[in-house]
Amino acid sequence: MDFYTKEHKRIYYDIINDQSEKDAIVFLNGVMASTSSWINQYTELEKLGYKIILHDFVGQLRSDKFEGLYSFEKHADDVRQLLEHIDVKSPHLIGTSYGGEVAMKYASLYPEETLSITVIDSVSEVDDRIVRSVEEWIDLAQSYEGEAFFYGIMPSIYGYNYIKNNKEMLSKRAKAMNKLPQDYFDGQIGLYKTFINDVNMTKELRKITCQSLIICGKEDTLKPVKFSQIITDEIKHSRLEVISDCGHVTIFEKPQELNQYIIEFLSNL
Predict the structure, then answer these.
(1) Mean pLDDT, residues 111-139
(2) Residues 119, 238, 86, CA angle at the centre, nearest 5°?
(3) What is the model's pLDDT at position 126?
(4) Per-residue pLDDT reduced to its tens digit, 10-67
(5) Whose CA is closest to 231, among 206, 263, 264?
(6) Half-sphere exposure (CA, 13 Å, Cβ side) for 33?
(7) What is the spatial order of strands in the sheet that 211-217 belongs to?
(8) Of 168, 56, 157, which Cα lies nearest the Cα of 97?
(9) CATH architecture of the domain with residue range 2-127+198-267
């Protein structure tokens, strides 16, 4: 389904268990991801009766792109407009990487409208090493060569053992990138630049009042555990869980462990 923001940006979204009277969960994508990326998570939470809301951010695969820079505040406002459109008042937010950063921004801007947040492999600030890594992604995306792009970023997002044990699947994923349109890469470039320029929000985290679960892969080299610790230290009602033998893409690498933490967290609220 499509929704148009007040700024006339088209956002693609899906709703699962639309008639459920149980709390709504909004999944917030990692930067390269789309709504289908959450299948390992939303199918489990669907079984528990939650209303599930998925969407592609402005700049991502099935939503409108933008010129220049966007902002995490704009993304959060887009989520809020979408929720108003579908008449959802106060959701749980689950976000990975870029999506976790949007979740934190949303919860800091609208604390009374946020039931909880789960923040996976995210940061609230950057250092020079993260900036250099993302700048390399920008250079790779500007080539518009999908397979080369995927192999270029792969070592920074997946753990060593996951790559070693999933070579055939990752090869297929790399080849599938060749089928993506040019505007996908243009959207990625805009999102990467937005991340570098706007992610610094550590000082805002103390505005978050809801219960918060922070999760990070122990072998995440893109956004290491120390950044999840910063987030945990700043959010009053939060706890940190570190998943062993896991890189940056926890939602793919360790879905069972991740789901266990999420379900336990939500069931105890």
Answers:
(1) 98
(2) 50
(3) 98
(4) 999 999 999 999 999 999 999 999 999 999 999 999 999 999 999 999 999 999 999 9
(5) 206
(6) 24
(7) 2-4, 10-16, 51-55, 24-28, 92-96, 116-120, 211-217, 238-243
(8) 157
(9) 3-Layer(aba) Sandwich (3.40)
In this structure, what token pair is assigned to residue 15? 């709703």
Q: Residue type for 239, please? A: R
Cα–Cα distance for residue pair 158/130, rounded to 1 Å: 15
Say what the pLDDT of residue 28 is. Answer: 99
Query: Left, alpha or beta for 242 (phi > 0: left; psi -120 to 50: alpha)?
Result: beta
pLDDT average, residue stretch 229-239: 98
Q: Are 49 and 20 in contact (CB under 8 A)?
A: yes
Sequential DSSP letters for 213-264: EEEEETT-SSS-HHHHHHHHHHSTTEEEEEESS--S-HHHHSHHHHHHHHHH
Distance CA 105, CA 77 (A): 10
Q: At residue 188, what is the residue type?
A: Q
Tokens matching residue 47: 């079984």
Q: What is the residue extent of each domain of the chain?
A: 2-127+198-267
Q: If you search the block for the tokens 């299948």, which residue do you land on?
A: 39
User: In the structure encoding, which two tokens stand for residue 75, read together?
Assistant: 């993304």
**Cβ neighbours of residue 252 closer than 8 Å, sequence gap 6 or more:** 37, 40, 158, 162
As a whole number of Å, the end-to-end CA separation of the chain is 31
pTM of the shown model: 0.98
Look up residue 206 and give its two tokens: 């103390």
Residues of the chain with pLDDT > 90, as a percent, come to 100
CB atoms within 10 A of CB 237: 10
